[in-house]
């Protein structure tokens, strides 16, 4: 049961945050914010990264008792963060990877739109649709 | 208001239901004279209205008479209403009398298009009426059949078409055209609801149309209005003259279909941005262009998302048409669809894009014409299309990614052109196929490489290089070994390095050594043969050859060997060159005379010089290859030996280090 998906820009401000649970949205934002530290740490560790897609996927950033946070960073230092419920043990790593791939693809679609300025919040319906689909998918 | 008897009765006793009242008031407003304030109606406008009712003239006269206008000489409100009622009665077949007015009648039907200045349309009305019935598609409006409506009441025969003229290219994209020419037929039923929705975005046009209404309700044209909402009148928004009559064909089309004239307009605009119709318009260019339409950026962004189906950040011609059309529709008040309408999907627009392509390439033109004349070919091409749709999409993606010219499109042109000619039901299928293929195709990205495919391709590319390093590995290892022996064997390094390129000069060296003998060439080759014969024996002769070639360098070679390998375990290898070290000096002449001795038969062959030379060249090549093989084998073996030697050296050095501190202390 997905909790939320966030897209964070290079300068570490959110481009897109969307979560399922409306009441714990603040907590979700907080989680994403704290996960940025871990992401940064992982990015700096991978010094020789040449953009291999496997290295874009950061994997499980940290698990807590409530949820697990997965990270993914693009070549342009845009970060995707997925937060999932810990109770959902059926989610495999491959699935998370595929989700990130889909996110990345949709994100590049948005970027390709000449009317979208990089750095603006993402306001694409197609992107919204994909995210919604993903949030529902593993429900 | 004066009230004749008839009029009075008409005025007071005619029950007008709400619907009729609204309708009539609308018509009344329509027929209002310019200077009206008195409630009298312009007779000519009324006349046109009556004509639009498609009743015979004598009926109309009767109606006029009965309603009292004739007496009055003008149409007042009551007369007008009575007249309308009478018209309705007449249309339903009732006699024109005041009595019939009182009954509950359906609304009078008025045929005629809306306020188009074109005279051509006056001829259309009867036809349009008929056509208007089956066509009822518009955004959000369901298909309309007269049968559905005929029972309860007769709605207007649709013809509240929503038409907006298309301003021809006025200036190079100075301002986007006002509106496309779109016909709409709305079922009356839904007009009320639909119009409520439309009023919101039609309201902005209302100012213009009312003025134009007066202007355009010329005798020859007449348009019926839906009821109630004055904003419904606003449907005649932004009426501008059309240049072409292509609009006529589209009275029953939905707004998302691009008309021929629109297509031409789009083509011109495309050309103004990008002369080559087969090429792409880049995103930035398109953005600049579409921003001029003054639509809000989020909407433009959404339009882009809808139209850029291959998602490459650039617009092909069909995508451009789609985008343009959406913009135009949006400017005319159509809400943007969530997904691309069927008629705008790339499969369809591709057909149209080939229309402008045809002038540019002869082949599609021919095909196009041929297709029309050879329907039998369609079946084949349809089959091809079904099977080749993947190739076509691949072609499309290649085109989009490579910016091919129209000539490339000519290839899939025959396939796509068949889309038009077969029955329409087939048409949704290929576009849907294309659509799914577009969607499932993982991003033919030409301008970015973040997709899985690209990553996989990149991953695939590296595997091919690995074999190459393997080949070079042998050299690299020799270089490594050179580094290993660098301290003591610069000559070795040079010797090894000299090794491969020096093969061809080998005969020359031997030639040099045989300066005396002029019959040298063959002996040169002969040396190889000699060498080959020697090959069969173990590598010694190879090394001999090596050493013989490198005379002094081999001495260096052998010396380090000797020095660094005091232990005789691997002395065989160094000894071989060492042994031969002396040989090069002496046995060379010895080797040469036997070579010379062995070749009196070739000497005989010298008479047939040319063929012999050719053969020998080939033999030399073969021998070179064989020597290469042998030498590589030798190389590897020597390397192994070198490794062993190195290891021993390392152990010895470590022992030495162990011993040395003790010695120093």
UniProtKB/TrEMBL annotation, chain A:
Q: Which InterPro entries does the record cross-reference, listed alphabetically?
A: Longin-like_dom_sf (IPR011012), Sedlin (IPR006722), TRAPPC2L (IPR044760)
Broad class of where this protein is predominantly found: cytoplasm
Q: What biological processes does GO assign it?
A: endoplasmic reticulum to Golgi vesicle-mediated transport
Task: Name the keywords, alphabetized.
Answer: ER-Golgi transport, Transport
Q: Which Pfam families match?
A: Sedlin_N
Entry annotated with the keyword Transport: yes
Q: Where are the transmembrane segments?
A: none
Subcellular localization: Cytoplasm, Perinuclear region
List the GO terms this entry assigns under cellular component, sorted alphabetically.
perinuclear region of cytoplasm
Q: Which family does it belong to?
A: Belongs to the TRAPP small subunits family. Sedlin subfamily.
Q: What is this protein called?
A: Trafficking protein particle complex subunit 2-like protein
The encoding gene is trappc2l
From TrEMBL, chain B:
The Low complexity compositionally biased stretches are 132-143, 508-519
Region of interest (Disordered), residue spans:
123-231, 371-476, 490-519, 532-602
* Species per Swiss-Prot/TrEMBL record: Gouania willdenowi (Blunt-snouted clingfish)
Name any Gene Ontology BP term.
endosomal transport
Which positions are tagged coiled coil? Answer: 628-655
Taken from the UniProt entry, a GO cellular component term is: cytoplasm
Q: Which InterPro entries match?
A: EF-hand-dom_pair, EF_Hand_1_Ca_BS, EF_hand_dom, EH_dom
Going by the UniProt record, its keywords in alphabetical order are: Calcium, Coiled coil, Metal-binding
Query: What segments bear the compositional bias annotation Polar residues?
Result: 187-201, 208-224, 383-392, 434-452
EH domain: residues covered: 262-351
Please state every residue range assigned to the domain named EF-hand: 295-330
Q: Where is the composition biased (Basic and acidic residues)?
A: 532-546
UniProt cross-references to PROSITE patterns, sorted A to Z: EF_HAND_1, EF_HAND_2, EH
Classification via Pfam families: EH
The identity of this protein, by name, is RALBP1 associated Eps domain containing 2
* Entry superkingdom: Eukaryota
Stretches with biased composition (Pro residues): 169-179
Does the keyword Metal-binding feature in the UniProt annotation?
A: yes
SUPFAM superfamilies according to UniProt: EF-hand
Name the gene.
reps2
Q: What are this entry's molecular-function GO terms?
A: calcium ion binding
């Amino acid at each position: 049961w997905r909790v939320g998906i966030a897209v964070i820009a290079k300068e570490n401000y959110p481009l897109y945050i969307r979560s399922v649970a409306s009441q714990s949205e603040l907590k979700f934002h907080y989680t994403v914010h704290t996960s940025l530290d871990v992401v940064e740490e992982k990015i700096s560790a991978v010094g020789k990264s040449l953009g291999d897609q496997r290295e874009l996927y950061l994997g499980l950033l940290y698990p807590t008792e409530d949820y697990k946070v997965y990270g993914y960073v693009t070549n342009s230092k845009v970060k995707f963060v997925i937060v999932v419920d810990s109770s959902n043990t059926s989610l495999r790593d491959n699935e998370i990877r595929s989700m990130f791939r889909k996110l990345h693809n949709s994100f590049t679609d948005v970027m390709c739109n000449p009317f979208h300025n990089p750095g603006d919040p993402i306001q694409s319906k197609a992107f919204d649709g994909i995210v919604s689909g993903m949030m529902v998918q593993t429900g | 208001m004066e009230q004749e008897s008839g009029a009075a009765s008409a005025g007071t006793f005619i029950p007008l239901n709400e619907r009729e009242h609204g309708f009539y008031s609308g018509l009344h407003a329509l027929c209002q004279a310019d200077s009206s304030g008195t409630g009298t109606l312009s007779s000519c406008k009324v006349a046109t209205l009556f004509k639009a009712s498609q009743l015979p003239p004598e009926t109309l006269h009767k109606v006029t008479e009965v309603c009292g206008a004739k007496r009055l000489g003008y149409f007042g409100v009551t007369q007008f209403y009575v007249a309308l009622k009478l018209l309705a009665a007449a249309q339903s077949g009732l006699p024109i009398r005041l009595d019939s007015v009182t009954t509950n009648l359906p609304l009078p039907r008025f045929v005629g298009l809306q306020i188009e200045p074109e005279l051509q349309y006056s001829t259309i009305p009867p036809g349009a009426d008929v056509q208007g019935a089956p066509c009822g598609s518009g955004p959000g409006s369901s298909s309309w059949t007269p049968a559905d409506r005929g029972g309860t009441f007769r709605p207007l025969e649709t013809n509240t078409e929503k038409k907006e003229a298309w301003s021809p290219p006025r200036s190079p994209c100075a301002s986007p055209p006002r509106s496309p020419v779109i016909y709409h037929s709305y079922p009356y039923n839904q007009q009320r609801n639909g119009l409520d929705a439309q009023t919101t975005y039609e309201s902005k046009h209302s100012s213009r149309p009312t003025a134009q209404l007066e202007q355009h309700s010329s005798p020859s044209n007449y348009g019926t209005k839906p009821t109630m909402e004055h904003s419904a009148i606003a449907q005649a928004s932004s009426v501008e003259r059309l240049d072409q009559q292509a609009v006529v064909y589209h009275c029953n089309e939905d707004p998302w279909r691009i008309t021929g004239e629109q297509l031409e307009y789009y083509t011109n605009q495309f050309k103004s941005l990008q002369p080559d119709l087969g090429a792409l318009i880049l995103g930035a260019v398109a953005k600049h262009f579409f921003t001029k339409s003054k639509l809000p950026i989020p909407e433009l962004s959404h339009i882009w998302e809808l139209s850029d189906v291959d998602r490459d950040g650039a617009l092909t011609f069909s995508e451009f048409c789609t985008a343009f059309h959406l913009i135009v529709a949006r400017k005319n008040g159509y809400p943007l669809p969530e997904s691309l309408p069927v008629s705008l999907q790339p499969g369809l627009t591709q057909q149209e894009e080939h229309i402008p392509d045809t002038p540019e390439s002869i082949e599609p033109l021919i095909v196009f014409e041929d297709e029309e004349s050879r329907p039998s070919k369609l079946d084949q091409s349809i089959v091809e299309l079904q099977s080749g749709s993947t190739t076509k999409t691949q072609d499309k993606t290649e085109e989009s990614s490579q910016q091919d010219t129209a000539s490339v499109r000519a290839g899939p042109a025959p396939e796509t052109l068949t889309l038009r000619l077969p029955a329409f039901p087939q048409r949704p299928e290929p576009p849907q196929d294309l659509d799914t293929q577009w969607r499932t195709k993982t991003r033919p990205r030409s301008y970015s490489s973040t997709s899985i495919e690209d990553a996989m391709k990149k991953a695939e590319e590296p595997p091919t290089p690995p074999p190459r390093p393997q080949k070079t590995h042998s050299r690299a290892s020799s270089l490594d070994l050179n580094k290993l022996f660098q301290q003591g064997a610069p000559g070795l390094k040079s010797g090894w390095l000299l090794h491969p390129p020096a093969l061809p000069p080998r005969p020359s060296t031997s030639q040099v050594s045989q300066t005396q003998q002029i019959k040298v060439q063959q002996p040169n080759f002969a040396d190889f043969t000699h060498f080959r014969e020697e090959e069969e024996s173990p590598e010694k002769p190879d090394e001999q050859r090596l050493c013989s070639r490198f005379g002094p360098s081999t001495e260096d070679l052998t010396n380090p060997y000797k020095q660094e390998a005091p232990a005789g375990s691997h002395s065989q290898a160094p000894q071989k060159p060492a042994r031969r070290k002396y040989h090069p000096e002496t046995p060379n002449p010895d080797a040469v005379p036997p070579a010379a001795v062995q070749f009196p038969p070739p000497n005989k062959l010298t008479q047939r010089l040319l063929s012999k030379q050719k053969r020998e060249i080939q033999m030399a090549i073969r021998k070179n290859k064989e020597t290469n093989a042998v030498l590589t084998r030798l190389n590897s073996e020597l390397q192994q030996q070198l490794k062993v030697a190195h290891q021993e050296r390392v152990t010895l050095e470590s022992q030495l280090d162990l011993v040395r501190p003790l010695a120093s202390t």
